[in-house]
């Protein structure tokens, strides 16, 4: 006899429903596995981009600080501090999101408000100050890209972990349990058919013996 599975009715309908659940679970497993593989590829791409952007940020900041140092040597730190204090707020940050395989990835964009004239005197300052301001503006844009990529890496890695747990649960728990249930129902139905067949043979033989008397 098959081992009894608690809460399972061994019927034809239950067998069909369980086999359908096995099919759906296997399809779900395959889709989640494909999603996980695609996310891993996206993760590697973001990691490579982040390394490139980090090198870019370092180079831009190095140039910006070198120009600032030269401007400081010419202007003096007091004058530069006064210029910095008078700088107007001319930038804003726009944050949106985009979806990659269902993962919401941030999009960060800096908008600079252009001005027809600079906020400092071109006559009383050196070109190094212009170069420093330009370099810092470029670096700020790259820093936003760097932060965007770091956030993407964190979110994609988290989704990969979550998807992997679901894939493992389907592969090692859900699907084996459903298959075992389907096997139990099928074996039970076959045993019932054999019992019914034996019972019918017994009844037929008893009727034949009764007629022969």
Your description of this structure?
With 213 residues, this protein is mainly α. It has a single domain (15-114, 122-178), classed as Helix Hairpins. Helix content is 75%, strand content 9%. The chain is built from three helices and two strands. The chain has helices spanning 12-75, 77-85, 127-212, and strands at residues 91-100, 103-112. Strands 1-2 form a two-stranded antiparallel ribbon. A hairpin with a 2-residue loop joins strand 1 (91-100) and strand 2 (103-112). It is rod-shaped, with a radius of gyration of 36 Å. It starts with 11 loop residues before the first helix and ends with a helix. The relative contact order is 0.16. The model has no long low-confidence stretch (mean pLDDT 83).
Which helices and strands occur, and which strands form pairs?
Blueprint: H1 12-75, H2 77-85, E1 91-100, E2 103-112, H3 127-212
Antiparallel strand pairs: 1-2
Helix pairs in contact: 1-2, 1-3
Observed structural traits:
213 residues; mainly alpha; Helix Hairpins; two-stranded antiparallel ribbon; 2 strands; rod-shaped
How are helices and strands ordered from N to C? HHEEH
| Strand-pairing-aware structural class | mainly alpha
Helix content: over 70%
How much of the sequence lies in strands comes to 5-15%
User: What fold name goes in the CATH topology slot?
Assistant: Helix Hairpins
């Amino acid at each position: 006899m098959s081992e009894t599975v608690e809460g399972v009715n061994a019927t034809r309908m239950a067998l069909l429903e369980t086999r359908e659940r096995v099919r759906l679970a296997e399809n779900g497993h395959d889709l989640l596995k494909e999603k996980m593989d695609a996310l891993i590829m996206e993760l590697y791409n973001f990691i490579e981009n982040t390394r490139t952007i980090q090198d870019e940020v370092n180079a831009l900041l190095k140039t910006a600080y070198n120009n600032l140092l030269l401007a400081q040597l010419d202007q003096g730190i007091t004058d530069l501090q006064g210029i910095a204090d008078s700088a107007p707020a001319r930038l804003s940050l726009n944050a949106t999101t985009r979806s990659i395989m269902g993962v919401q990835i941030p999009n960060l964009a800096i908008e600079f408000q252009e001005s027809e004239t600079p906020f400092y005197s071109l006559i009383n300052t050196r070109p190094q100050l212009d170069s420093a301001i330009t370099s810092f503006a470029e670096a700020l844009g790259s820093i936003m890209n760097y932060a965007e990529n770091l956030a993407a890496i964190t979110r994609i890695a988290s989704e990969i972990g979550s998807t992997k747990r679901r894939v493992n649960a389907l592969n090692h728990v859900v699907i084996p349990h459903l298959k075992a249930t389907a096997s139990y129902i099928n074996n039970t139905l076959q045993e019932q058919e054999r019992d019914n067949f034996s019972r019918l043979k017994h009844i037929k033989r008893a009727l034949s013996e009764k007629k022969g008397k």
